[in-house]
Input
Amino acid sequence: MEPLLIGVDVGGTNIRMGVVTPDGHIPKKIEYPMDMSRGGLAMMEGLVSRLQDFIQQETGRDRSEIRIGIGIAGSIDMKRGLLVTSPNLPDLHGFPLQAYLQERISYPIIIENDANAFTLGEGWKGAAKGSRHYCGITLGTGVGGGIVVEGEILHGSEGMGGEVGHMVLNPKGPLCGCGGRGCLEVYASGSGIRRRALEANKKGKGKKILKKGRGDIKKVTSEEVFEAAKEGDRTALKIFNEMGRYLGLGLVNLIHLFNPEKIVIGGKVSKAWDYFIGSTTEVVHQRTMKGQREKVQIVQTECGDDAGILGAAYVALKLE
Amino acid sequence: MEPLLIGVDVGGTNIRMGVVTPDGHIPKKIEYPMDMSRGGLAMMEGLVSRLQDFIQQETGRDRSEIRIGIGIAGSIDMKRGLLVTSPNLPDLHGFPLQAYLQERISYPIIIENDANAFTLGEGWKGAAKGSRHYCGITLGTGVGGGIVVEGEILHGSEGMGGEVGHMVLNPKGPLCGCGGRGCLEVYASGSGIRRRALEANKKGKGKKILKKGRGDIKKVTSEEVFEAAKEGDRTALKIFNEMGRYLGLGLVNLIHLFNPEKIVIGGKVSKAWDYFIGSTTEVVHQRTMKGQREKVQIVQTECGDDAGILGAAYVALKLE
Output
């Protein structure tokens, strides 16, 4: 009997879980906000409880084999099942996540970085289907990435590879949460877009952006900067143009290092695709070598919000 | 019977070839200057002739199986055996190198990028022995690199991956031969060191460097800048310090993307190790995440000038 899969996507603001069939359909899924008010451990307890309920309700009694895959933001030591660092769970650094979950849930569980899960989801059912050499990038609150080499996700020696968001693009650039400066993440993330909107506001620019924030620039979201861009706000348009150029520099590095067939870009910021992709492809064209440039396709997510669930389920499917 | 291997390292100024035993010893090797005076094709004809002589003289009559591996600078399309671009052989762009050689030499031949060969040589017999996740960097006239993932060199979809030298570190930096700006190569190569010496000279700095060039700064080599550093020339010391910092930025990117156990650094510029490695490790310490930084060792080549021959032979050994 084929296993039934549960894919879980632990994001920065929401948790999504879905029943996934071995051929990649999602007959049932739920989404609920991630409650961080009582800290990371309480959040984990909540996750376990929700997951137990979901399994019981959705999988029926006669399923002999269930496997669970969980994608979670952060640097994961896959060998030891540790959450080494996590941007959303600062009180759980070094947390033995795999063991914690496995003690509470009787079905086999595997954890994976959320951007790796996104990447695998796109390779399984989305924009990189059939590709054996590709990269995935998630433009969310932060910037995540996954690298597939010869059909396998690149984990590196400890499972912490593929940290695309922390490539240095400008050594004197703004400070990043990782301790570095001028990483891709400070330019191409939702936080980076907000930062640029704040900086523009200080110079008296971006009136439509300010309006979106109901007069308080500090409350403006990256989605609202995008809204302002759609309405033709010149500052907002400039912000996405600049963001696209830095993203392009990041892609140049990925192309030189990995010679991929495809680069799939997802995450909420990728919804502003038409507002940044022009400058991205321009930079890629200017700065890569001909042989490499000709082959690579830069494409938008096809799985959208489901990519994380699909990829987490895929990891569980491939569990040995 | 085990195959006898011939490893060939086609560098920018010299060609080295060696007989290599299947356990990685080099009982015999030769080195001769690369003659580019009559163009790339004449150089190739010379290489074939030398190689034929070398095989005849050194391998005896009773060897039933001989395999030849050739490491050569440039972007190589391994699927089709093409030399897509090569810094030293500008007139051979797109040249069908594999077919050309195989038509002239009856033993099996495999071509590989020279920095990949260096990297594999270090993994086989040198500083990365036993490691399954590591990177190799060659600091020569240019900067090359090789990435090993799960024990295999990363070729990417067309065999053009691992172009470490063309990671963008500073988007407004000096123009690079690849068409980009501020690539690792413009900072950490021998050419980059010469460029900095010239720039310093224009400002009236680096008297000992100028002296090494017998009064003509344009004739100064990167080795001579190193000599001046050893004699305490402050400008030369500063040049290597700065070069080390950019190299560090490159390593930060490799560590974030590949989570390697080791990074092995070779090439002629690496001989100035003690003059740049301090600032390199400082930058790596400042800009990488704890979990990744703790694991990685940054080490100097152990095979030295033999790494290329060994790695090319290793590729031939693994030929299926």
About this structure: The two ends of chain A are 15 Å apart (CA to CA).
